[in-house]
Amino acid sequence: MNVAGEPSFRESVDLMFKRAVALMDLSPGLEEKIRVCNSTYTVRFGVRLRGEIKTFTGYRSVHSEHMEPVKGGIRYALSVNQDEVEALAALMTYKCALVETPFGGSKGGLCIDPRAWDEHELEQITRRFAFELIKRDLINPSQNVPAPDMGTGEREMAWIADQYKRMNTTDINGNACVTGKPINLGGIQGRVEATGRGVQFALREFFRHPEDMAKCGLTGGIEGKRVIVQGLGNVGYHAAKFLSEDDGAKVIAVIERDGALIDDKGLDIEDIRQWMNKSGGLLANYPRATFSADGPAALELACDILIPAALEGVIHKGNAERIRAPLIIEAANGPITFGGDEILRRRGAVIIPDMYANAGGVTVSYFEWVKNLSHIRFGRMQRRQEEAHHALLIQELERLSDEKSLGWTLSPDFKSRYMKGAGELELVRSGLDDTMRSAYNAMREVWHGRQDVEDLRVAAYIVSISRIAAAYRSKGL
Ligand code: GLU
To answer: Taking every pair of C-alpha atoms in the chain, what is the biggest distance, in angstroms?
Structure first.
């Protein structure tokens, strides 16, 4: 979304970048090299559909190749354009550096309304788009590895992987050409919900630091906090579900394209999602909460945590003054414009920035890529060995208790939980949690450690740009 009187999305990202670089000691040449987008490939291709040739426009933008492969999703939306794809590719570069996934940044997009086509047509379009990108190595396990983004999911990734394998029949690492695949086609447990899970882990880490909470006047834990979620797509739905079901947060409003559902007592996210599956994604007429057709106004309701989880640019100069949430966590990419960010900062809101907050997706994508390259499921070698080891300790404790008549009884619940070896899902969650904690602490060191750094976004950029600069310095350009 381009907001009147504000810079474009790409310019907004660049302005945020420059705000951080002003506090760093980078040569102007290196600053520019890191900031600019290396290349954007535009393709227009035809597909014979419904008795005629339809032409589609797609992009794959590579922002930085300081590490390869480059990584980033493919978005399907009518609003896709070069500026947006380049902004999103830049954010991927910074995101990957911040959470230490060994990738450069890329992004793709196809101008299409996925709802306008049936499954078979979408497959033809996707395969054709993938063909165009694969033949230029813009999809390739060692060069460029796409993933899902808005409007795409496991289904599209499966078509892309299959297309790659048809065109590269002897590439043993073919499955690693794309992430976010279904489990039965080389995907990994926990990838679908990874971005939402990452938002939950990010918030948990934030709430472990009273000093950080004090910056926006919050106390206590996540439990009972009033949350507003904008966008109940894959990311927003999982974040809202996990925060309400696992952490006891109260989701008091959800916003979708036709309006908002509001309930001060807390909404049942799973129930709403089931409703949306039947209603074609609409919230109106949902019987168990108040519906308001004015979605944007619901962003301005009083709450503790606001989670924009849909499109870019939803909080801007025009509404930032009225946003009441003291804490905003950017589950979407670029939901706050540069102008909106300035207003919110001045008003004392704490913003957990996109490049950190939504990095759970690419983090688990990294695990999937590694799994594909190693050709073995995580935990397959260790799981039973670990269980046998734990059983040994339990047997010994029970033997000692009998021998010395100590009367110890280990509860069956403890025993079964302690004995359970980690499978792929547990390992993925542990890796994701560790990543989110480490990256938060890297940002927070800069945030608290430097007088001139006032917010987490600048801190995130500084951490990330320093790492990219170090990569360029050590390898040369
Ligand atoms: N599209 C997601 C993002 O914006 C995931 C990218 C990936 O997994 O490569 O971070």
So the answer is: 85
